[in-house]
Amino acid sequence: MRPPESLPRAAAPFLGFARLLRRRAFAIAPEQVTSFMQAVTLLGPRSMNDIREAALATFAPPPDRRDEFEAHFRAYFHGDAKPSIEGEEDDETRIKDDRGTHEEENQAARQEKGGELSSALEQLSSREFQRDADGLGQLRRKLASALPTRRSFRTARTRSRGSFDLRRSLGEIVGADGDIPSPLLRRRLALPRKLLLLIDISGSMKLHTADYLKLAHAAVQGADRAEVFTFGTRLTRITSALRIRDREQALARAAALVDDWDGGTRMGPTLLAFLSVPRFSAFARGACVVILSDGLERGDHSDLETAMRRLGARAFRLSLATPLAGDPRFRPATAALHALLPVLDDLVDGSSVGSLADFILSLGRPAPAASVIWKGVS
Amino acid sequence: MIWAQAEQLAASPEAVAARLTASRYLADDSLATAIFLAIRLGKPLLLEGAPGVGKTEAAKAVAELLGRGLVRLQCYEGIDAGHALYEWNYQRQLLAIRHAGEHEIDIYDDRFLIARPLLQVLRAPVERVLLVDEIDRSDHEFEALLLEFLSDFQISIPERGTIRAATRPIVILTSNRTRELAEALRRRCVYHWIGYPDAQREAEIIMLRSGDVAEATAKAVANAVQEIRARPLAKPPGIAEAVEWANAATILEKGGSPWPEAFRRAIGVLIKDEEDLSAIAPELGRIVEEALA
Question: Which residues of chain A from 244 to 273 reach within 8 Å of chain B, CB to CB?
Answer without folding.
Answer: 272-273
